[in-house]
Amino acid sequence: MYSISSEDADSYSCTVKGCENLRSPAVYKPKRTSVSVSPSGEIVEDSSVTLTCSSDANPPVQSYTWYKKNGGGYQIMTGPQHVFNQIQSSDSGEYYCEAQNEMGTDRSRTINMDVKYGPKSTSVSVSPSGEIVEGSSVTLTCSSDANPPVQSYTWYKKNGVYYPSTTYMTTGPHLVFNQIKSSVTGEYYCEAWNGMKTGRSESINVNVRCE
User: Which among 22, 35, 49, 147 is least buried, having the fewest CB atoms inside 10 angstroms?
Assistant: First the structure.
């Protein structure tokens, strides 16, 4: 005769009747499932990053499944490790794993992957669009995608002359000409800096027509 006892809701062992002090090893579904990130610390674009799923289970975990949260979440990988050889900004998001053995399944908490990167897609736009007439108000705007966000913008004219922010009442990403003059005609570009790298825009031609 055999007896089966439950040590807890998900852990079971058995003994031979009359030898209850000699229990079989407990069997249980995965528990304490967790995700670790290597290397630890800030995650920078193009670096190598490994997520590792760990779980306590008996019998051992048979399969691991990785998910990225995207509304309802979707499966992206199987196996105890998910390796990003050259991680990209598009890999940012929340991840979790599931561990499964023949007794059941357990899910880890989510971890947030925040990939840092320097300014990119830096560009200059002109407002208002269309012909620029001397004496009108014109604003050049520098835009850039970066994480962390851009900390400073610098404006240049193609002839190498630097325009300090005080000269044209520039604040942050904007270079403002309140009463533009024909002498302003030329090619302009901006640089965006976020503490990691600098991103430079293509030059844009500002052609001021005399009245």
Answer: 22
pLDDT at 49: 97
pLDDT of residue 129: 87
**Alpha carbon of 136 to those of 37, 158, 193: distances in Å?**
55, 22, 30
Number of domains into which the chain is organized: 2
Q: Check if the beta carbon of residue 57 is closer than 8 Å to that of residue 11.
A: no
Instruction: For CA atoms 13, 15, 21, 24, give the dihedral sign.
Output: negative
Cβ neighbors of 172 (< 8 A, separation 6 or more) are: 153
**Dist. CA 2–CA 101, nearest whole Å:** 24
Is the backbone of residue 159 left (phi > 0), alpha (psi -120 to 50) or beta?
A: alpha
Same domain? For 109 and 147 the reply is no
CA neighbours within 13 Å on the CB side: how many for 42?
A: 7
Same domain, 108 and 124: no
pLDDT for the residue 161: 52
- Round the CA-based radius of gyration of the chain to a whole number and report it: 30
- Identify the segments of the chain with pLDDT beneath 50: 1-8, 164-169
**Is residue 20 assigned to a domain?**
no
pTM for the whole structure:
0.76
pLDDT value at residue 11: 56
- In this prediction, residue 45 carries a pLDDT of 97
pLDDT at 141: 95
